[in-house]
Design goal:
Elements (H helix, E strand, L loop, with lengths): L1 H28 L6 H22 L14 H29 L4 H23 L14 E4 L7 E3 L1 H23 L1 H11 L1 H6 L4 H26 L6 H16 L4 H21 L5 H15 L10
Antiparallel strand pairs: 1-2
Helix pairs in contact: 1-5, 1-6, 1-8, 1-9, 1-10, 2-3, 2-4, 2-8, 2-9, 3-4, 3-8, 5-6, 5-8, 6-8, 9-10, 9-11, 10-11
Length: 305
C-alpha cells in the first residue's frame, strides 16, 4: 500500500506540473489547448539534446551528483529547456492562436489539434521513434520502510528529487501569483477579463506571461517524466488525457486544484497498475473523475461564476 502511495505521488507531481499550465490556459486564454501535451515532449527532448552537448563539452558534467543518476549537465539542460519551451509556446500563440482569437474557442481548439499533430511529427522526424534515456546509470531503489516493519516502501533518489522539486516549483508559482503585480493581474484576468481591462491591466502582457509560464512548467514536467520513466515522441499525447483529467477534477483556474487533481490521478493510476493492470490505468483515472464530478460538478476547487 505504501509503495502504491509513493509511486502515485511521483506520477501525480509530474501530472500536476503539466496540469497547472493547462489550467492557466483554460482560465486566462479561455480555450482547451490540445497542443499543451506536446510541449512536455519537446521540453524533454530539448533537455536531452542540451545535456548531450554540455557533457560533450565537459565530460565531468555527466558524472552523477551524489545518489542521483544525473549530473550538472542535465540540470543546466533543464534550465535551457525551460527557456526554449517557453519561447516555443509563445511562438505558437504569436504565429497561430493570436490570429484566430477573434474566431472563437472552437476554432482555437481545432487549431490546437493541428498544432499538436505538427509538433508531434516534427519531434518524431527529428529524434526517431526509439525510446531515449537521460542516463544509462542504473539506480537501485532504497528501502525507506522495510517489509519487516509492515511497509516495503522503496524509492529511487531520482523519484525523491522529482517529488521535492515539483513541490518547490508549485510553491514558488503560488507565491508569484499571490504577491507579484503580474501574478495579481493574471488572477484578475482569469476572474473577469473585461473588468481587468477597464482597470488598466494589459491583456496582451498577461497572455504572454501565461504562455511563458505554461511552457516552463511543461518543460519541467517533461524532463521529470523522462527522468523517472523514459522519453518517446508520443509522450505528450500519452500525458494529455491525465492532464485534462487533473484540471477538470481540481477545478479550472485553481492552481492547488490542479495539483490535488494531479495527485488523485497519479494515485489512481498507480493503484490500477497494481490491482487491474497497466492497460486500464487511464480508464480507472477517468472513473474516479466521473465519480467526483457527480458530487462536485465544478471540480474540487472550482468556483461558481
Amino acid at each position: 500500500m505504501l509503495q502504491i502511495l509513493a509511486d502515485g505521488l511521483v506520477i501525480g507531481s509530474i501530472i500536476a506540473l503539466g496540469a497547472i499550465g493547462l489550467s492557466m490556459t483554460l482560465s486566462i486564454v479561455r480555450f482547451s489547448n490540445f497542443s499543451h501535451g506536446e510541449l512536455l515532449g519537446w521540453g524533454a527532448y530539448l533537455a536531452l539534446v542540451a545535456s548531450t552537448a554540455f557533457t560533450a563539452f565537459s565530460p565531468a558534467w555527466a558524472l552523477p551528483l551524489g545518489p542521483f543518476s544525473f549530473g550538472w549537465g542535465l540540470l543546466l539542460a533543464l534550465l535551457l529547456s525551460c527557456g526554449l519551451t517557453a519561447l516555443l509556446a509563445l511562438s505558437l500563440d504569436t504565429i497561430l492562436f493570436k490570429r484566430l482569437r477573434k474566431q472563437g474557442s472552437i476554432t482555437l481548439v481545432i487549431a490546437s489539434f493541428g498544432a499538436a499533430l505538427a509538433l508531434r511529427n516534427l519531434l518524431l522526424f527529428w529524434q526517431g521513434g526509439i525510446p531515449r534515456y537521460y542516463s544509462e546509470n542504473l539506480q537501485i531503489a532504497v528501502a525507506l520502510v522495510p517489509r519487516s516493519m509492515g511497509g516495503g516502501l522503496r524509492v529511487t533518489p531520482d523519484q525523491v528529487f522529482v517529488f521535492v522539486l515539483s513541490l518547490v516549483t508549485v510553491t514558488g508559482l503560488h507565491l508569484f501569483l499571490r504577491h507579484s503585480t503580474l501574478g495579481r493581474s493574471m488572477r484578475a484576468t482569469a476572474l473577469n477579463p473585461a473588468l481587468a481591462r477597464v482597470t488598466g491591466i494589459d491583456p496582451e502582457r498577461v497572455l504572454r506571461a501565461t504562455w511563458l509560464i505554461g511552457g516552463v512548467l511543461a518543460a519541467v514536467a517533461g524532463v521529470f517524466a523522462g527522468l523517472t520513466v523514459q522519453m518517446r515522441p508520443t509522450m505528450g499525447v500519452d500525458l494529455l488525457l491525465p492532464l485534462f483529467a487533473a484540471v477538470i477534477l481540481g477545478g479550472v483556474g485553481s492552481i492547488w486544484g490542479a495539483v490535488l487533481g494531479g495527485f488523485i490521478v497519479g494515485l489512481t493510476e498507480s493503484a490500477s497498475i497494481t490491482l487491474v493492470g497497466a492497460e486500464y490505468r487511464s480508464a480507472a483515472a477517468f472513473a474516479v473523475l466521473i465519480a467526483i464530478l457527480m458530487l462536485r460538478p465544478r471540480g474540487l476547487f472550482g468556483e461558481r461564476h
